[in-house]
UniProtKB/TrEMBL annotation:
GO molecular function, one term: dioxygenase activity
Protein name: Aromatic ring-hydroxylating dioxygenase subunit alpha
Pfam family, one: VanA_C
Keywords: Dioxygenase, Oxidoreductase
Ranges for domain Vanillate O-demethylase oxygenase-like C-terminal catalytic: 99-272
Length: 291
């Protein structure tokens, strides 16, 4: 199938830096194409398309992640200022394969309403189930979506939490398959930890979610930081893997949104306005023209 240029020409993650061993070759898929990649003995990252005679891919390493573009990338790359702050802990929190469209995984990442039910005792708890009204806006200049003034009661907001807090969130979507969460740091409440979700679409119904942390946390071990995020993701995994359709519907009539779904609704509109079809649900048209 033909893939629209707005998807084909994006940068996509293939691996978090510490997950690769220098001198070893790895294989994966991206947008349905077979990719061979790795770092040489000097640590230089490269990738080739196995299904195109071994032609080289454009690559870059940024935000603790190795990226590939199969097409013609635009000149810029989204900015994450937290990676330039020297006191931050930067590490990969795992790369998880999911039987769902990468767009589904991003949308789930943006959803606070499920916290008290799916992440009870961690990111939410009953009876604190109401989601206060928050603001959503599209930054036209940067072509990004922002959700601000997001607040929710959390018994254990992070690995280093000592007590329950009302966590303040900012959600940011920079690309169709990239989302960043900024949330209250238990260690320094005036600052925000950054959790980056970089999604690699293997094809339209499978993806790998690469998670990278830029934390203000001087006490937790790397193991504890990773374990906390992997625990949260494993709780989401069962829901994502059983969600049908596996691709993301963009028609607002297909899955009715609520007030708490403001960011999800904005994300779907943003994808729709871009003409994104890859990884979205396209109803089969019957002979009479009705789905």
């Amino acid at each position: 199938m033909s893939i629209e240029s707005s998807i084909w020409n994006q940068w996509y993650p293939l691996a978090v830096v510490e997950d690769l061993v220098d001198g070893r070759i790895y294989r994966t898929s991206l947008l349905g194409h077979e990719i061979r990649f790795g770092r040489d003995a000097e640590g230089h990252f490269s990738a080739t398309r196995d299904d195109d005679g071994g032609s080289p891919c454009r690559t870059t390493t940024l935000y603790h992640t190795h990226w590939v573009c199969l097409g013609e990338p635009d000149a810029g790359f989204f900015q994450i200022a937290e990676f330039d702050e020297p006191d931050r802990r930067v590490l990969g929190a795992g790369s998880m394969k999911v039987h769902a469209s990468g767009l589904r995984v991003v949308e789930n990442f943006l959803d606070m309403a499920h916290f008290p039910y799916v992440h009870a005792g961690f990111l939410g708890a009953e009876p604190y189930t109401d989601i206060s009204t928050y603001r959503v806006e599209v930054d036209q200049e940067r072509d990004e979506i922002l959700a601000t003034d997001c607040r929710i009661f959390q018994p254990m907001a992070a690995a280093g939490s000592k007590q329950a807090i009302e966590a303040h969130y900012v959600y940011r979507v920079t690309r169709p398959f990239v989302a960043i969460l900024y949330k209250t740091s238990p260690e320094q409440p005036e600052r925000r930890d950054a959790i980056c979700l970089f999604v690699q679409p293997l094809d339209e119904e499978w993806c790998i979610a690469h998670v990278v942390l830029a934390y203000v946390d001087a006490t937790s071990s790397d193991r504890d930081l990773r374990l906390f995020q992997q625990t949260i993701f494993s709780q989401d995994l069962m829901i994502l893997s059983n969600h049908l359709p596996r691709t993301l519907p963009l028609d607002p009539k297909f899955e009715i949104p609520t007030r708490a779904d403001a960011m999800s609704s904005a994300y779907r509109r943003w994808l729709r306005d871009k003409g994104i079809r890859y990884g979205t649900y396209q109803p089969v048209q019957a002979a009479g023209g009705q789905p």
